[in-house]
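Incident log, structure service

09:12 report received: a user says their structure output differs between two submissions of the same chain.
09:20 pulled the input from the user's history:
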Amino acid sequence: MTTFRPAAALAFALAAAVPFAPAFASSGERDGRETRRVEESRALAAAPVDAAAAIAAVRAAGHGPVRGIEWERGRWEVKTIDAQGRRATFNVDAASGAVTPRGR
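09:34 re-ran on a clean worker, output below:
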């Protein structure tokens, strides 16, 4: 006859669940990141200033060739060459097209 030992059963159940604990804990983080990604995609789609307009705004402000452009936190981040020939990064507001140096 088999004897049921509650303490042993509990220990076995806990040991079996431990490998899955990180997956359960991180699902909330993953959902949060996915939500932020969806919100950023919607903001990008709704932005009146697109990538081409952001580049044009930076060029109109007197800065040289554009080396790269990224959508970040509701604004365009444009990497270019400034008026003195140095590498520079500018933020372009997605709503107004205003150009500001990065960090301001």
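09:41 both user submissions now match this output. Likely a transient worker issue. Closing.
09:42 reviewer note: The two ends are 76 Å apart (CA to CA). The chain is about 45% helix and 25% strand.
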